[in-house]
Amino acid sequence: MAAIALSSLTMTPLGKLRYGSTPEAELYSWLQACYRSELAAALNPPRIAEFDHDGLGPNVKRMEYLIVRDLDLDPLNHEKNPGHAKADDVRLEARGGRIVAYAEFVYHPRAEDAQSEATDTDGTATPGGSKDEVAVPPPPPPSVHGELCKYWDDLVETALQSQFGGMHCFEVRGLSTLAPSHLRKGIASRLLGWIFPWAERLHVPVVLAATPPGYPLYLKHGFVPVGPNGGVVECDMARWGGSGIHRHVLMIRWPEKQEICATVGERGR
């Protein structure tokens, strides 16, 4: 996953401005540490795919990572960190191939359900509340444009919270393919489509902040821009020593039944 992120990290002008001065080896080590930290917390049960099995119902925070592995490619671990493979790397290599794409999904329960799940009948925090703690990623290398990274990440997160905070929904937190060898092969569409049956079952929307490369894909799969200014969140890169405007777009994909009801309602006006 770190290799996938690294392959596309500087594909946009904003990415070059944020990470272009940092040696590739430093970026790779940092990304690896970030994913290890995040996965250690995010993949604790319950999971989205365990809605049917744990008996807890839909009202707890859940995450899911999906990966696609190309069995014709060799793993990258020993190439990047010769002699320093960890136990997790060894287990992954034993399966063969290389991870070439991944998706990250988060389930956001109803606000009132999340609150009731976090407290017991006496109003005190339950031990299980620690599951929802956010992993703190390691700091980036000194050569990364830290101020720009913080500014942009905070700007996007604030926009997401402002538009979708408290909404009962699924969120696409990440969707990435190894560039350029595995682009335009339908991999991202397959990964993205995994979440739609879950959303239809619970009759909730799927939301995200689309990057410039991902925007056409999300339009193709029924997402529409939403929010002020057409959902656009933008950064004037001239402020940070670059040029041009970088944009993300807040988007939502409504459940099919809700789309039908909305269409009927509009026709009846």
UniProtKB/TrEMBL annotation:
Region (Disordered) residue spans: 112-142
Coiled coil: none
Gene3D superfamilies: 3.40.630.30
UniProt xrefs under InterPro entries: Acyl_CoA_acyltransferase, Trichothecene_AcTrans
PANTHER family linked: GNAT FAMILY ACETYLTRANSFERASE, N-ACETYLTRANSFERASE DOMAIN-CONTAINING PROTEIN
Name of the protein: N-acetyltransferase domain-containing protein
